[in-house]
What does this fold into?
Amino acid sequence: EARRMTEITTQEKKRIEHEVYLDIYPSTKLDQYNHQLVDLEHTITSNEEEIRFQNQYLQYLAAQEKLEIANERRKLAFENGKISAVPALEAYISPVKGTITQIYKEDYEVALESETVLSIHKPTNLYIKAFYDQKDLRYLKEGDVVDIRFPDGSTSMGVLQRFYFATYQLPDEFQKKYEPVTRSIVADILPINEVELEKWKAFYKLNVSISKPILGVT
It folds into this structure.
């Protein structure tokens, strides 16, 4: 739906550009279309990330279900005195930390040493998408170091890398009920170093709190 709206908005923008050229509309008429296109691009990116995350989670659930079924079969075989006919399950430790994104073999298939059994995604370019009120921009600038608090209470530090100066609708989980829809300035925050990057990987896709001390402000 967002892609369809992007195509429609782009076509409409081209029409308005022509009419602006003919002095039918002022150039400011294009601003609303530019803002709409930025919002739609952000929506498309967020939807794609959410779909990818949900697919990974479904694959994880399927793998867990297969393991539970195999363990249940082994338990039944043991109770029936046929444990020798069922191969024991053995855990293999991955050489890298990451998230399983695709499994190429079923649990009943035999794999050669040279074959790929599964793919593991190792996140490297992690960043935090932060939402700020427009009034807070006077205290912020690109390059600022900010404090980060994770859901478990642990802390980290990040660098405010860039701002998106078009306003965005605040995500539903942060929007107060029965109040007008809040629009915010979005910023990307990157880990301050490799050590902090490793901390962030454990909290992929989770909400965090961002703060920055301001001297002379209470």
About this structure: The first strand starts at residue 99 and ends at 103. DSSP finds three helices and seven strands in the chain. The longest helix spans residues 31-79.
